[in-house]
């Protein structure tokens, strides 16, 4: 699987013959694309926070609390990506399409790529800069969902493309919220454990 040419599937170059012959399988996508890219936000968050607040995450609680949060973020990302692929597969029925799970995962993986890559900019200590970069990444992701629906699902009607794209984007927003809330819940649980240990 040529990861560099993965984006060919969301361009007019993705003919039906080529798409059938060369689309990567679910296992290939997960092992060689989704898993490595999902590590980028975790690594960048760990490096950034550990560099700036080294003592805040290493104290009474055994192990490194920040490492625990990063590991949970990684697992949550994978879970949300798989859930989004399944939801996208089912949402396509709104426009009378029955895509495979592989095609749905392909769209979600490609569309999430800008968001994974923007985490590299965590090295820039500017909140406003990162907000702008992430805003651009979100717009790019929406455009990739639109093109994925059009070329990977082979939908040609503009109304159907727009409807399915909107449904996927709204659901993805909820998925992102799940990742954020899950991380916050985990953080709170770790803080409670920390307080309990100190109290005892």
Automatic annotation (TrEMBL):
Major location category of this protein: membrane
InterPro entries: Yip1_dom
Keyword annotations from UniProtKB, A to Z: Membrane, Transmembrane, Transmembrane helix
Domain Yip1: 12-175
Transmembrane segments: 26-46, 66-92, 104-125, 131-149, 161-185
Pfam families membership: Yip1 (PF04893)
Record's subcellular location: Membrane
Membrane topology field: Multi-pass membrane protein
Protein name: Yip1 family protein
